[in-house]
Design goal:
Blueprint (H helix, E strand, L loop, with lengths): L14 H6 L3 H7 L4 H61 L5 E8 L5 E8 L7 H5 L3 E2 L5 H4 L11 H29 L6 H14 L13 H6 L6 H14 L4 H31 L11 E3 L5 E3 L4 H31 L4 H15 L1 H9 L2 H6 L6 E2 L14 H22 L9 E4 L8 E5 L14 E2 L2 E2 H10 L19 H13 L16 E3 L11 E3 L2 H9 L28 E3 L2 H7 L5 H7 L5 H11 L11 H4 L8 E11 L2 H6 L2 H15 L6 E7 L9 E10 L12 H9 L10 E6 L5 E4 H6 L6 H5 L1
Parallel strand pairs: 8-13
Antiparallel strand pairs: 1-2, 3-6, 4-5, 7-8, 9-10, 11-12, 14-16, 14-17, 14-18, 15-16
């Protein structure tokens, strides 16, 4: 059997056996071939040849595989070199500020593990991204809020780290919520609640009662409190508020600084919240099979993208709770600092609030593993938006404008709602009434308008006495009459509410009549007296006090009207005091209680007739509008109902013959009208007809009217002297006969006289001229 050379120059595995086997010729020389042996030899030779061919094919196949492996190794070596060159080139480009590019190594298992290298263009970025394209970067801090974001990226953390992050996130959220609930429900105790303010207002109403008014010095209890002249619990509370408000460096200045610093601290957290949310929103969307984080050889970790579902989960479970906790801390932290009255506790409370803000960092330093803590600073900053393409933008981004607005809004909100303390106006006045026996509330300012405080009304002035000046000012007369007090009774249901409303209405009113030193703006009230200078300045009305006043139905700045005074022009009209009105102490001392002693003397039913008539005649130089003062000259009876009247009229009938024959219709109509007008019994009204005589025109008659026992309240003039009005009334009477009418009626003024009924009865001819003829 001939020797077969191995393929590729390498001997097959059975070469040694083939080399030591004897040749066929050697066998022939030793053993004589038999037919059976020859057959076995040929069979053995065929088997050996087949195995040789098989071994040759296997060797060729091994050599081909070896060549293929060598080619793949060479290709991989070239690809690795190319990748290294690309990375070096990219690093140089990044150092020169070129556009960012990422070298991705993709392994395709369906193409016989061929490695493909791609350059993927990324958005423009550099180390100072905010300066070059105006888009901020979100960097991970050592905070549990930032570390928890790694839970939403594929292959970013290990299972153990995920458990730690979940526990840390839940613990941080629970601790901050519990601390905020503690501050909100327990520590936010407003020392000046609505009820407290209401009690202050109630005390102030009582401080203005006449019983608490010092009528010697002209100061109310409220003024003495503001002047710090009392020794009481109220004075101690007032001093606490005064020190907070009116020291050289007031307490609210320190509160203002603490609130501003706290809001700035909160807004740093607000910026972190919004940038985290914007970074998550602007991350590219990737499929579940893609890795969310890429680890570079230099140790940096780049966030490639996030799945859409996990993006929503990150915003809902991480960003929203973080923003909610931040806003909660901002609002209630401002309230907590603003409601701290003690100056020593303001700084301590600010430090306590900062402790709540740092809970997330404390938990991160305690719970995060070494691997997580080392990962956070190596994560490549994430972009918070897209570039506008402009190198310089005129307007700041919306997120920056939002932060500015929220910062300013929180400061304004804290200052206007919580920081401004309660204050009060301290005008001196007292009040009377507001009880069942005296319902109208009479507000009595010590000084108001032209009415200055006086100890009594008997003093003298440059123009006479104080009372003369008072009467001249309000009544236009100068008459020093006696003063008599009276009480006007009335009933009501809720006088406490009326007192609260009307006394506070005047206490917080604004009017130039208070004087220049007490006249504040529409949104201000008079502050307390300075301890040193004794001066008082206008301060802004706190919103909380405005709300308390509105709850009592107090219209701020509205001055109650003056109490009604007697006006001679209007006559003796009924004067009813409104629910509340002004009546100064000058008026009280010179004119008694509203509506004034002058009104009582001139018109009150309890005043005697002589006083009424004298007041009108000698003070106002007028006739009394309601009573006939002539009666006091003719009557001595208590009711002055003895006055009588005689008057004569010249009557010209339309038909003298008819009228002279029967004038009863005219007489009856005349009497009916006078009874109706005067209210006198018809038996005391007589009308007698007679001829006019030669001293009067012919074909005329005289009508003599007599009225007896006229009531005091009836004034016959101008009824009996108004001829035209009287004739018109007679003609309209049902008793008047139109066919026997009157053409004219003339009053004989010389025949009009007043006398007593007794005198008239003693002189019957005055009413019936026929007696004189007899």
């Amino acid at each position: 059997m001939a020797k077969t050379a191995p393929t590729g120059g390498e001997p097959p595995e059975n070469d040694e056996a083939t080399a030591t086997a004897p040749t066929p010729k050697a066998k022939e020389s030793k053993v004589k071939k038999t037919p059976k042996a020859r057959s076995e030899a040929e069979s053995l030779q065929g088997t050996v040849q087949a195995q040789g061919k098989q071994l040759t094919a296997q060797a060729e196949q091994l050599e081909a595989q070896s060549q293929q492996l060598s080619a793949q190794a060479e290709f991989l070596s070239r690809q690795d070199l190319r990748i290294q060159q690309l990375e070096q080139r990219l690093e140089r480009l990044l150092e020169q500020g070129a556009r960012t590019a990422v070298a991705e190594v993709m392994e395709d298992v369906q193409a016989n593990d061929v490695v493909e290298v791609k350059l993927v263009a990324a958005p423009q970025a550099d180390e100072e991204d905010e300066v070059h394209d105006g888009v901020a970067l979100y960097e991970f801090d050592q905070s549990i809020w930032d570390a928890a974001l790694l839970l939403f990226f594929n292959n970013a953390t290990t299972p153990v780290d995920r458990v730690v992050l979940i526990l840390g996130f839940l613990l941080n959220l629970a601790l901050q919520i519990v601390l905020l609930l503690t501050v909100t429900l327990i520590l936010l105790e407003n020392p000046y609640t609505h009820q407290t303010v209401k009690e202050m207002l109630t005390w102030r109403v009582g401080a203005h009662t006449s019983a608490n008014f010092d009528d010697t010095a002209g100061t109310s209890l409220s003024r003495r409190l503001c002047n710090q002249e009392l020794w009481s619990y109220e004075q101690a509370e007032f001093k606490l508020m005064y020190d907070y408000l009116y020291q050289v460096v007031p307490g609210y200045i320190l509160s203002s600084l603490a609130i501003i610093m706290w809001i700035l601290t909160v807004m740093v957290e607000f910026r972190r919240c919004t940038e985290q949310a914007l970074a998550v929103i602007h991350l590219p969307a990737i499929s579940p099979r893609e890795s969310g984080a890429v680890h570079h050889r230099d140790g940096r970790i780049a966030i490639r993208g996030i799945q859409p579902t996990k993006r929503c989960l990150a915003l809902v479970t991480l960003s929203l709770p973080r923003i909610a906790v931040m806003l909660w801390m901002a609002l209630f932290g401002c309230q907590y600092l603003a409601q701290t009255v003690s100056l020593e506790n303001i700084v301590l409370n600010a430090v306590g609030l900062a402790f709540i803000m740092d809970v997330d960092e404390l938990i991160a330093h305690v719970l995060l593993t070494e691997q997580l803590r080392s990962m956070l600073p190596r994560i490549v900053p994430m972009r918070c938006g897209e570039s506008s393409g402009k190198s310089v933008s005129v307007c700041p981004p919306v997120k920056d404008l939002t932060r500015y607005v929220v910062t300013a809004g929180l400061i304004i909100l804290a200052f206007n709602i919580w920081l401004v303390p309660f204050d009060a106006n301290g005008e001196d006045f007292s009040f009377e009434g507001g009880v069942a026996e005296n319902a109208p509330i009479i507000l009595q300012p010590a000084s108001f308008g032209q009415d200055a405080w006086v100890t009594d009304c008997g003093g003298t002035t440059t123009n006479g006495t104080i009372q003369d000046d008072y009467l001249q000012r309000y009544y236009g007369v100068r008459y020093n009459a006696s003063v008599k007090n009276r009480i006007k009774s009335a009933t009501g249901d809720d006088y406490q509410k009326l007192r609260m409303k009307n006394v506070l209405q005047f206490a917080y009113a604004n009017s130039p009549d208070f004087g220049a030193s007490h006249n504040c703006g529409s949104d201000s009230v008079l502050g307390p007296q300075d301890k040193d200078s004794k001066a008082r300045a206008c301060v802004k009305l706190p919103p909380s006090l405005s709300a308390a006043l509105q709850a009592e139905n107090v219209t701020h700045k509205s001055v109650p009207e003056n109490c009604p005074r007697f006006n001679a022009t209007d006559g003796c009209v009924s004067l009813t005091n409104p629910e509340a009105c002004l009546w100064t102490w000058l008026a009280k001392k010179c004119d008694g209680s509203p509506s004034g002693e002058i009104q009582w003397q001139a018109c009150d039913s309890q005043s005697d007739v002589n006083t009424k008539c004298d007041t009108w005649e000698y003070v106002f130089k007028k006739d009394h509008p309601e009573i006939n003062c002539i009666a006091r000259y003719h009557c001595t009876s208590p009711n002055f109902n003895c006055l009588a009247l005689r008057a004569q009229y010249l009557v010209k009938p339309s038909s003298w013959n008819t009228f002279s024959a029967d004038n009863s219709a005219f007489v009856n109509a005349f009497r009916y009208i006078m009874v109706d007008w005067s209210g006198i019994d018809q038996s005391h009204v007589t009308v007698h007809m007679s001829e006019a005589g030669s001293s009067h025109p012919s074909r005329t008659a005289l009508a003599t009217l007599c009225l007896r026992n006229m009531p005091l309240e009836y004034k016959p003039e101008p009824n009996v002297t108004g001829a035209s009005q009287l004739l018109a009334a007679i003609r309209q009477s049902d008793l008047y006969n139109q066919s026997n009418g009157i053409e004219s009626l003339t009053v004989l003024s010389d025949e009009l006289e007043y006398l007593s009924t007794t005198d008239l009865n003693n002189q019957p001819w005055k009413c019936d001229p026929s007696w004189a003829a007899d």
